[in-house]
Design a protein that fits this description.
The complex is a heterodimer of chains A (552) and B (106).
Chain A lengths: L5 H23 L4 H9 L3 E3 L4 E5 L5 E3 H14 L3 E4 L5 E6 L4 H9 L17 E2 L14 H11 L14 E4 L13 E7 L5 E7 L11 E8 L3 H15 L10 H8 L1 H12 L11 H9 L14 H9 L1 H10 E3 L5 E6 L10 E3 H14 L3 E4 L5 E7 L3 H10 L14 E2 L14 H10 L3 H7 L4 E4 L13 E8 L2 E8 L11 E2 L4 E2 L3 H15 L7 H8 L2 H10 L1
Helix pairs in contact in A: 1-2, 1-4, 3-4, 3-12, 6-8, 7-8, 10-11, 14-16, 16-18
Chain B lengths: L14 E7 L5 E4 L5 E2 L11 H13 L4 E11 L5 E3 L2 H8 L12
Antiparallel strand pairs in B: 1-2, 1-4, 2-3, 4-5
Classes of the chains: A alpha+beta (552), B alpha+beta (106).
């Protein structure tokens, strides 16, 4: 966990007081909506179809059990008893009243949570690998760097009114679990040939209306230079990007228009004069940030305790869960456990207040009080002793978060869609729910292997449809919901945008079409372990298209 | 951004004026007596551009009653009451088409 200092606590408390006054003035009519809207957005408050929505930042997806309990409390006391984990590792409450929001923010502030920079044209919550600090083979904990950048970018006066929103993601593992290549800046920490750790800096990735995979503009950046280099990128972006057209204002358009090489040169020119100035990181500053991430005092344990093997043999459900949702930890005798928020028929990423409270208690018992949020809208317990896995599984199963479908076909990413969102053109959640029913057979799901279905209810792509192995985008045609389907996208270190399968299909046919695509994959794969994306890569879209449009 | 009042309204059938209530964001409809109601059945229904413009102007002027007022098409049901025409307005009027998550998990 990261331990906040007085500066952080003061900042949050001051913001709560300021926001309380702004809400008071709005409700009394002293502020017009036009004046108030940018102020509420700076605190993550949107007005959606039915109510206000509050987006709460979860920096780099790390939560303490006390923070999760507070989110449960907010859901129960001020909302309708649940919250929604998003693809940017944040939490959203869908039914919040403006009148209650100052109290909500005050309650959240007590545990260091807030909604700052979760909206508006600023640097948003910096995301990272949900296995940060515990993944085997990781260079080092990427949250140290996410935190440094968070501190630098929080209320940075130059970057509070950027041309558009700005999203940064960091990983320190060779396998990318945080989709860095579809972020405005993607940072990959790795060791070069000389054994020195530094960043590959990628820019201009993004989804939305005009999707792009990020381009590398700095193959190796020493760690001391990360803040000055990010500052230089933001300065070039701030000065050169299109402010005249909201659809062309993201950095991806600038990088595309200039070309990655010219953009890199502009950044270099901006960076060289500041590189050795105050933004060059003093090792003591890095050490101070690193020291404020506390790690558990792990017990000395052996891997694979015999009771696990016994229960795996005795209980098929436990065996399936262990094989699917439990991952190796860097410390022997420990494990990383993913909690599926994708039950059959459930809205992806939603957790009830009762579930959140229970997970917080479970985290205290089995994961040193720490929880992580995945961009796939699941949760993770990062520090579990393997000997505790049977008891943990029973506890998780009892609250409905042990479905062994992590990374499988029913582990669907979906945005809130037209059921909640004022920007959406079509619904996403009921499409996801129907698909989880169609693919409820976990033996079939395991046979299919890794298969990510991502659904967005509009072109803004909060559901990351472009990089779903199967991507589903809702559009509106003459008042009816239609869905464009892409295949072959992926969000990892080999990120690619999916290719369009063909004409959009109506709402009622989406699940049938997805079943046909999956059936085609089973017929077309060369061997059982050729994954869906590998098959699409090898054969292209055509054989899938023929199959789907022959029957629909 | 152009104010809704500066946009020329094209009215081809019955319409209502709808917005979100300031205090809690609830969906509300402008009524004949110049108030807001959460019931679409109580909305003032007009069918021509001058009447819609007048209704919308009054709604927008009530900045602490509700926000984001706009004109939405409706159709009149068998009982003469307005019903939403498109899915977006149906969802705004009736709520999400899904069961809320309280029915899942614990």
């Amino acid at each position: 966990m990261y331990v906040y200092d007085d500066l952080d606590r003061t900042l949050v408390a001051e913001r709560v007081a300021e926001f309380r006054d702004q809400v008071r003035r709005r409700l009394s009519g002293e502020l017009t909506e036009e004046e108030f809207k940018p102020l509420r957005l700076m605190n993550g408050i949107y007005l959606q179809l039915h109510a206000y929505m509050a987006r709460i930042a979860i920096p780099y997806g790390t939560l303490s059990s006390d923070q999760l309990r507070m989110l449960a409390h907010v859901g129960r006391r001020y909302d309708r008893g649940y919250g929604h984990f998003t693809t940017r590792q944040n939490m959203q409450f869908n039914w919040i009243k403006l009148e209650s929001l100052p109290d909500v923010m005050e309650d959240l502030g007590r545990v260091g949570l807030h909604g700052m920079q979760t909206s508006g044209n600023c640097v948003r919550n910096i995301t990272t690998d949900q296995w940060a600090g515990v993944a085997a083979g990781e260079v080092e904990d990427p949250r140290i760097w996410a935190e440094l950048l968070r501190q630098h970018c929080t209320m940075h006066p130059e970057f509070t009114f950027l041309p558009r929103k700005f999203k940064i993601a960091v990983t320190a593992s060779s396998h990318d679990r945080v989709a860095i290549k579809v972020h405005d800046i993607g940072l990959r920490l790795y060791r070069n040939g000389a054994g020195e750790a530094g960043f590959e800096v990628m820019v201009g990735g993004g989804l939305g209306r005009t999707p792009f995979i990020a381009k590398t503009i700095k193959p190796f950046l020493p760690k001391r230079d990360i803040v000055s280099y990010v500052e230089a990128i933001l300065r070039v972006y701030n000065q050169a990007a299109r402010r005249d057209n909201i659809y062309k204002a993201r950095i991806k358009i600038l990088v595309h228009d200039l070309g990655a090489e010219a953009f890199a040169k502009a950044v270099e020119a901006e960076w060289l004069p500041i590189k050795d100035g105050p933004l060059a990181l003093d090792p003591a500053v890095i050490a101070d940030i690193a020291a404020r991430f506390s790690y558990p005092d792990y017990a000395q344990l052996d891997d694979d305790p015999p009771e696990l093997a016994r229960l795996r043999k005795a209980d098929r459900r436990f065996d399936a869960w262990l094989g699917n949702s439990v991952t190796n930890h860097k410390v022997p005798g420990h494990a990383i456990v993913t909690l599926s928020l994708k039950p059959e028929g459930g809205p992806p990423g939603d957790a009830t207040s009762a579930q959140m409270d229970a997970i917080a208690d479970i985290a205290d018992l089995y994961s040193f009080g720490e929880i992580r949020v995945c961009h796939e809208q699941n949760l993770v317990l990062p520090h579990v002793a393997q000997r505790d896995l049977p008891a943990l599984w029973r506890a998780l199963d009892a609250i409905g978060v042990a479905t062994p479908n992590v990374g499988l076909v029913s582990d669907i990413i979906a945005c809130p869609g037209l059921d909640y969102c004022s920007l959406a053109n079509a619904r996403a959640i009921p499409v996801a729910q129907e698909l989880t029913r169609r693919f409820r057979d976990l033996d079939l799901a395991r046979d299919l292997g890794r298969l990510h279905i991502n659904i967005s209810g509009c072109i803004n792509a909060c559901g990351h449809h472009h990089v779903g192995h199967i991507g589903i985008l809702g559009v509106e045609k003459n008042g009816e919901e239609f869905y464009q389907i892409t295949i072959g996208g992926r969000a990892d270190e080999k990120a690619e945008l999916g290719a369009l399968l063909g004409p959009a299909v109506p709402y009622g046919q989406v699940a049938d079409v997805v079943e046909d695509i999956v059936a085609a994959y089973v017929e077309l794969r060369e061997r059982p372990d050729e994954s869906f994306v590998q098959t699409v890569k090898r054969l292209g879209v055509e054989p899938f298209k023929e199959r789907v449009y022959a029957t629909h | 951004m152009t104010s809704p009042l500066e946009q020329k309204l094209r009215i081809t059938g019955p319409v209502v004026v709808t917005a979100n209530r300031l205090g809690d964001g609830a969906v509300v409809y402008r009524t004949l007596n110049g108030n807001w109601s959460t019931a679409l059945a109580q909305a003032a229904v007009v069918d021509n551009a001058p009447a819609a413009t007048t209704l919308l102007a009054a709604a927008i002027a009530d900045d602490i009653g509700a926000v984001g007022a706009y004109v939405a098409p409706v159709r009149l049901g068998a009982d003469g009451r307005p019903e939403p025409v498109n899915l977006r307005e149906r969802i705004r009027s009736a709520g999400p088409t899904i069961d809320l998550p309280l029915t899942f998990g614990i």
